[in-house]
Every structure is written in structure tokens, then in C-alpha cells.
Design a protein that fits this description.
Length: about 130
Amino acid sequence: MAETVIKKRPKHLNLLVIRQPLPAILSILHRASGAAIFLLLPVLICMFQMSLTSAETYAAVRGCMNNVLVKIILFGLLWLYMHHFCAGIRFLLLDVHVGVDLSGARLGSKIVFVVSIVLTLIVGVKIIC
């Protein structure tokens, strides 16, 4: 009679300890970036509205934009947008069965990360700096 081997599986998965595959990290960041963009959009709209109100409020917003911490936050927000945009295109391609296999999914994830970082640097240097 053949013996069956029973593997002990963990009862509680610690997501911070488990090594996630790159497509899973991309998917998690896509969802997180969408939520962050949604939550920070009112702040950006408020700043835009303030900059259009008068010359004084435009100068105040412009002065706020010259702060190094604000520039870092704007770079981060720009990367969130670029990542969400590029990952969204990747997910649209997955919907039409492009890059569904394991090697294609890994390659697509790498491409999304590289393209989003490059686009962030190009647009960020042009606009923010």
C-alpha cells in the first residue's frame, strides 16, 4: 500500500515574510496606487483651484511647490500615476491574452516597473524641477 505524504501547511500566512512573485507585487502596487491617487486627488484639485484664484494664492502655491519635501511627494505621486497607468495597460493586454504565461507575466511586470520609473524621471525632471 502506498503511503501518502501530508505536508504541513501554515495556518496563518504572514504576507511580509512570504516572498511574493513580481506579478503579485505589481498587482498589489496597482491597487494601492489607485487608492492613493483617489485619496490625494482632492488635495491636488484644491491646490490647482488655489493657484487660479488670485495672484497672491498662486504665489503661495508656487512657494509651497519650491519646498523639497513637496517636490519629493509630487515625484512619488507622479510615480504612482505612471505605475498605475502602465500597469493598467498591462492588465488590458492580459485581458486579450497577451503575456498570460509565466514568462510573459514576469517580463511584462519588469517592463511596467522600468517604463514607469523612466517616465516618472522624464516627466518629473521636466515639470517638477
